[in-house]
Design goal:
Length: 308
């Protein structure tokens, strides 16, 4: 019975109906589907013949949903989304050894890249296609298996691990630090060249004893890695996330300009849809990230080793 019912379903007509209903235009739907407006009209007629009710009302170039069409649309969209998700999951499971992962550009450049050789050594057959973006991942409408994100929590419905906490530190170039010293030793913050970092605002580092807020500098940068590059070039002191500053601190490109470490309310999370969580390639990357973040020193531990 089910196979017979499915065989009669006007699946193509439903896809065309969704395209018209969301655009309220036969011509725009035809363009999006790469068919002619006449073909769109034919499919809508086929759907209405199947349902025995009108779903769209046309008046000249104006297109409106009928009450029945408005009721039908959410169900059609939900069904198409589910179908797309199942087809994508099936296709991606066949791509053995390949995983598509989204993460922040700053974390990719400063934390992940220096460690990728260990991932390649441990899992030589695993290929990771990294994509960098700040935008939340819509797993139902994209090819991503997983993501690494910085936030206070995780969106409902996702399988997740907390990978590591985050802290904010003040950094400077060795040359500039030699000239101006630690901000911990100053009664006033005036006279220190600084960079305005939109991602990590100065206000989190203002000293309670300072007579005025940290004065605004001439340079404002909204990208965390670019801020670090400017600091290394000697343009000023700046706040930075510990995760992306630690490698340059180890290399001597940066120094801590304060021993005050500010815990961040944000944490790094590994997230993936439950349907992908048991894929061998996802499990491999997930475990590797757990191992790497567990071995990554916290700033207090780094300070105690550096200055003991």
């Amino acid at each position: 019975m089910a196979a017979s019912a499915y065989g009669r379903l006007p699946l193509n007509a439903l896809r065309v109906f969704e395209a018209v209903a969301t655009r309220l235009s036969f011509s725009e739907a035809a363009e999006a589907l790469n068919v002619t407006p006449a073909a769109v009209s034919q499919q809508i007629k086929a759907l209405e013949d199947y349902l025995q009710i009108p779903v769209l009302r046309r008046s000249g170039r104006k297109v409106e949903l009928t009450p029945e069409g408005a009721k039908l649309l959410p169900g059609v969209q939900s069904g198409l989304d589910s179908l797309v998700a199942v087809l994508r999951e099936t296709r991606m499971q066949r791509a053995s050894g390949i995983i598509n992962v989204s993460t922040l550009s700053s974390l990719m450049q400063k934390w992940l890249t220096p460690r990728l050789h260990r991932l390649h050594s441990k899992f030589p057959d695993l290929r990771v296609d990294w994509h960098t973006s700040r935008e939340a991942v819509d797993f139902a409408r994209s090819d991503f298996h997983a993501a690494v994100r910085l936030g206070e929590g995780v969106a409902p419905g996702l399988d997740h691990d907390k990978l590591m906490d985050e802290w904010l530190v003040v950094v400077a170039s060795p040359q500039l630090f030699k000239k101006h010293g630690s901000i911990d030793d100053r009664e006033s913050l005036h006279g220190i060249p600084m960079l305005q970092a939109k991602d990590e605002p100065w206000s989190r580092f203002e000293k309670n004893t300072a007579p005025t807020p940290w004065p605004a500098g001439p340079t404002i940068i909204d990208d965390s890695v670019s801020v670090l590059s400017a600091v290394i070039a000697g343009l000023g002191y700046a706040p930075a996330r510990w995760s992306i500053a630690a490698n340059d601190l180890d290399a001597g490109n940066l120094v801590l300009a304060s021993k005050v470490i500010v815990p961040s309310r944000f944490r790094y999370w590994f997230v993936c849809p439950p349907s992908y969580s048991e894929l061998p390639m996802v499990l491999a990357l997930r475990q590797w990230l757990r191992d790497e973040t567990a071995a990554f020193p916290k700033p207090d531990d780094w300070l105690s080793r550096r200055y003991r």
